[in-house]
Specification:
Blueprint: H1 48-103
């Protein structure tokens, strides 16, 4: 009852893939001229709109990276100021406590 029952190994039939025949070329036909490779590898057509979109995308990417870098630098600067202020406060407190113990 609780013993698993596995299918017999001969029930599996592998899928067969049949290649399609290649089209027959006639010797009288001339081959089509090959396109010249572009800077983008032929993925998009060359047009002023494409160039403008690429330039806008590049500018947006640079602005995004610059804003992240400025945010990181600002975070480091704020942390440095906070640590220096807390260091001065701690130094003041230690000197005050030392003077209190010398007077007693």
């Amino acid at each position: 009852m609780f013993k698993p029952q596995y299918p017999r190994p001969d029930t599996y039939t592998p899928a067969t893939i049949r290649p399609t025949p290649a089209p027959v070329e006639h010797p009288a036909s001339t081959p089509a001229p090959a396109k010249t490779p572009t800077a983008l590898g032929g993925l998009v057509q060359n047009s002023p709109g494409t160039a403008l979109a690429l330039a806008a995308g590049g500018v947006a990417g640079v602005l995004a990276l610059a804003s992240v870098a400025v945010s990181l630098l600002l975070a480091v600067a704020v942390t440095a100021v906070a640590l220096s202020v807390s260091g001065v406060v701690l130094l003041f407190l230690v000197r005050t406590l030392r003077q209190e113990f010398k007077n007693h």
